[in-house]
């Protein structure tokens, strides 16, 4: 039995040469309040990325963006400091720059007057 174990060669890990691995990087992002203070203007820099490879997902507090080139995958998950209305977001992509405008969500505060002694 030990002879059969000695004769077996260790299995080599096969590499898929047809699909090179991609580097992963976080895209540069800048989020500022827009001029009329009604929402965010967000810019995401994705150099060399084709529009068809971009994925943008949002909820009221977070944004996830990804995109790919032949050798690089950009991916980032970001928290927004104020709640927004993702269904009302508008986007434009041109020459590696994804521009996103998203309005703030109306916050409904249910407050009560507290008596101060």
Write up what this structure looks like.
Helices cover 5% and strands 40% of the residues. It has 1 helix and 8 strands. The strands form 2 sheets. Strands 1-6-5-4 form a 4-stranded mixed sheet, with no helix packed on it. A hairpin with a 2-residue loop joins strand 7 (90-94) and strand 8.
Instruction: Assign the CATH topology of one domain.
Output: Immunoglobulin-like
Distance between the termini: 89 Å
Shape, per Cα inertia axes: elongated
User: Reading side by side through the largest sheet, how are the strands ordered?
Assistant: 1-6-5-4
- The biggest beta sheet, please? 4 strands, mixed
Unreliable segments (pLDDT under 50, ≥5 consecutive)? none
- Average the pLDDT over all residues and give the rounded result: 87
> According to CATH, what is the class of one domain?
Mainly Beta
Structure summary, number of beta strands: 8
CATH architecture of one domain: Sandwich
What keywords describe this structure?
single chain, 117 residues, mainly beta, Immunoglobulin-like, 4-stranded mixed beta sheet, 4-stranded antiparallel beta sheet
Blueprint of the fold:
Elements: H1 2-7, E1 23-25, E2 28-33, E3 39-45, E4 55-58, E5 62-68, E6 72-79, E7 90-94, E8 97-103
Parallel strand pairs: 1-6
Antiparallel strand pairs: 2-3, 3-8, 4-5, 5-6, 7-8
How is this structure best summarized?
Helices cover 5% and strands 40% of the residues. The protein has 117 residues and is mainly beta.
């Amino acid at each position: 039995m030990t002879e059969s174990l000695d004769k077996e060669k260790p299995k080599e890990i096969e590499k898929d040469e047809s699909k090179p691995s991609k580097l992963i990087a976080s895209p540069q992002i800048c989020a500022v309040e827009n001029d009329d203070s009604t929402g965010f203007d967000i810019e995401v820099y994705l150099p060399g990325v084709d529009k068809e490879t971009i994925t943008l997902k949002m909820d009221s507090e977070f944004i996830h963006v990804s995109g790919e080139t032949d050798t690089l995958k950009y991916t980032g998950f970001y928290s927004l400091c104020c709640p927004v209305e993702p269904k009302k977001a508008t986007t434009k992509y041109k020459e590696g720059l994804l521009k996103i405008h998203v309005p703030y969500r109306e916050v409904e505060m249910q407050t009560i007057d507290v008596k101060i002694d």
